[in-house]
Amino acid sequence: MTNHWIDIRNSDCILIMGSNAAENHPISMKWVGKAMDKGATLISVDPRFTRTSSKADIYAPLRSGTDIAFLGGMMNYILSNNKFHKEYAANYTNASFIVGSEFDFKDGLFAGYDPKKKKYDKSKWAFEKDGNGVPKRDLTLKDPRCVFQLMKKHYSRYTPKTVSSITGTPEKDLKKVWEPYAKTGAADKTGTIMYAMGWTQHTVGVQNIRMMAMIQLLLGNMGRPGGGVNALRGESNVQGSTDHCLLFHILPGYLKTPRASNDSLAAYNKKWTPKTSDPLSANWWGNTPKYSVSFLKSMFGEAATQENNFGYSWLPKIDDGKTYSWLDIFDEMYQGKFKGFFAWGQNPACSGANSNKTRQAMAKLDWMVNVNIFDNETASFWKGPGMKPDEIKTEVFFLPCYTSVEKEGSITNSGRWMQWRYAASKPPRGCKSDGDIMVELFEKVRELYETDGKFPEPIKNMRWDYVKDGKFDAHAIAKLVNGYFEKDATVKGKSFKKGTLVPSFAYLLDDGSTSSGNWLYCNSYTEKGNMAARREKKDPTGMGLYPEWSWCWPVNRRIIYNRASVDLNGKPWSANKNILEYKDGKWVGDVPDGGWPPMSNKEKTKRPFIMKPDGVASVFGPGRADGPLPEHYEPLECPVPKNLMSSQRMNPVAPVYGTEADAHLSCDPRFPFVGTTYRVTEHWQTGILTRWQPWLLETQPQLFVEMSNELAKLKGINNGDMCKVSSARGKVEAVAMVTGRFKPMTVQGLTVHQVGLPWCFGWIYPKDGGDSANLLTPSTGDPNTRIPETKAFMVNVEKLGKRRA
Amino acid sequence: MAGKFFFIDTTRCTACRGCQIACKQYKKHSASKTKQYGSYQNPLDLDGNTFRLVRFSEHPSKENSMVWYFFTEACRHCLKPPCKKKVDQIKKDAIIVNEFGAVLYTEKMKGLEKSSKAIKQACPWSIPNWSKEEKQMVKCNMCYDRVEAGLPTACAKACPTGALNFGDEADMKKLAQERLAAVKKKFGGRGEILDLEDVRALYLIIDEQAKYRPVA
Ligand code: SF4
Ligand code: SF4
Hints:
heterodimer, A: Dimethylsulfoxide Reductase, domain 2, Rossmann fold, six-stranded mixed β-sheet, 22% helix, 16% strand, B: globular
């Protein structure tokens, strides 16, 4: 979230799309309700009428996988009806930038496409620069090559008629959503978006979100209370694990993972430190070397010296151009290229797309360790449906661990709040905390490396000063994440003794004087104490920032890009939306995005989007794998033979895997219905924690498939009948839930039916509960993030004829 | 202690079922083996272990094509409880009304198995059920032990949306009237509070009662 949960209450219009917040983030509805009490409009856009839709003022259906068409139409509506916030768009975004003459867009492809490599040459999308290397601008937004005009042209193709024919949303329903949302372009209004996996899990996942971010920017909703782009995270600590480098392409704090070609620290810093020639751009990522060196000091401590480039050569490198995501890992595992696998706190046999492939892949391992609370479909995959235990060589180790409430530590919520928790209850005997398991594991590995092992330096030199009496110490690691002065140093006129905690990332240095495990969290655990453990209920702005309740990255800024919440003179765009104001030469309110004076002070100011090299937000995004402007493409599997927007049926750069387990069939009469997956309130992810909980199981005991009355009639299915749902990759048995909450849609003149299933069940328990809906989903995904496309695929539904006893 | 009331604003309820589960947790009730029968609602009805149940009812509608109503049902704690009237004829004061108005089924209810159907029928909403474990009719007891200790009921405590509220009579009635006014404004004059003069569980609804729960 750029904003935070409580801030939803400050919104005038809440769009919940790509999310079923009432179902999956029940507490969020408290804040939605508070906004509605003050007159806010709630809009729910979803293929199915959901628990969220039941509370909405406006509901519109759409076919899964067509969000860009829906939002592209909204963009067209905003631009052609002049609903955007002109001053904001011109000054705070790159709408005014002039795009280079090589940029082009023709029939679904942007300039620079290489069909052999299925890749773009992004240099074709560069901006035109002036003599000083600063992008050329036209603040009137009239130049035909400026981003604004290119966008206008691009989205003029998304007419209500075309959009409706793609999405299946009736034209009148499109307008019902577009009009009220576009009204938040007024200076005294803000609108917010709450989205989740319904947007990310597509071959166009990143562009779904970009499309909305662009709308938010043009309406002037970013950085403002009640606005922002708000990802509702699927687990309580997804934000934290992402910040601390859950993903292969980043190190903690979103530093880049070194590539093989970054063969020295200098080369790494050169490659990944963005540059700007614009004196008005703060270009905060220009500090990358300070953060990367401080990170290395946190990894290797005293052993990291100026002479050995702070141990840079000990960091693992990834091959240039190669991806190492979940989909790639299981693809290689399936091909027998992995020996061992730690499935730590997870259940890939049910959670990953294309579960049959995942389960088969695990059978090709020599060993697997599953760290979990209960037995699950991963730990016991070898005795699962269709497996022959005596033919499987994989040796499985199950390590029982503590639950999250049995140990001390922090979680970082969707709103970027790092919240410290104490251990609430005692764990059962025989279990260990994740930290202790890691400590034991590492110490054993290190012992082995002492005597033997290739390239022992990274292991032997690992900083290891957060183990107390042989136990993992959460406070010690939190302090190292914040960072220390590693020697006496004077920074910004202040002197610090060696061993002092660094007060904030502004004090980090690139000469080895400081360490910080994650620069974004520098300021979270300082000499003033553990900021995340704070529980003060003061709210000085009255806007629900609660600055002394826990701590929030970066530097306790509750709404990021908040200098865009004020006009060029530092006054809030409207008085009712005041979280920050420039008064008597200083900023009052939230922690500002940099302390520079507002834009009207042309000598001393910096532009508000300080993390962007140009200091403004990118409505034109030249960094994405699939183009600088979102474009509608059909999912890998879809019900129509062609894409109405162009002759590129699917995202031309999306990854498609080629093993026999990766079958996919689009527009095939054997799989005529659109399928999607989702969660239910009563179960947590794959249900591994909740299926064993009798009260929860009582409320949601068995896999179901929701379908419209019309489809049920067509297939002779009655409510409660057992059905078989199948795709090109697998099948599940599910109880039919026949409902008016799904309705057939008209897409390109054809009647399209959609069904949906939750993915919280598995064969291990309960025995009559059904198996994972991910047996149906395909291994393809977004080209930027490689998140799998589990929200839109094709299935068939048949009555099994017997009702489950 | 002042008389206690529930105020249930169905327009706010998202059917998270926090209340339904919180009741089971606080009461340490066991779960039944259920099956999916084509609805989110489960168990099918209140039973010896289910004192609070969220009912799910969907109907076609002109606006937004559908409505999906949620109704968190439990004992209404009537001001003049018909179940008590009935039971008093069989065993005097087996049912008592405590100082803050909770209608309580005492130990004396044990062994009235033969009258269980009649007791259930006496309740306008068929709330009480026979508990095999306790060998008596059972239902919500307003978490009277919690309330005596100054705590809200377990179900109200769990509700995240402000749909299920519990407190002093005056506060709940005030909240109910405020919400009724707001809801009427929003829904074009629709909105009513059910059985305002008769019960301690005030429900605010915006459509016919039969669209929320089965009515006899
Ligand atoms: S008041 Fe107590 S007993 Fe009654 S429904 Fe609520 S939690 Fe259950
Ligand atoms: S806890 Fe509240 S919102 Fe959830 S089902 Fe019960 S009354 Fe509704």
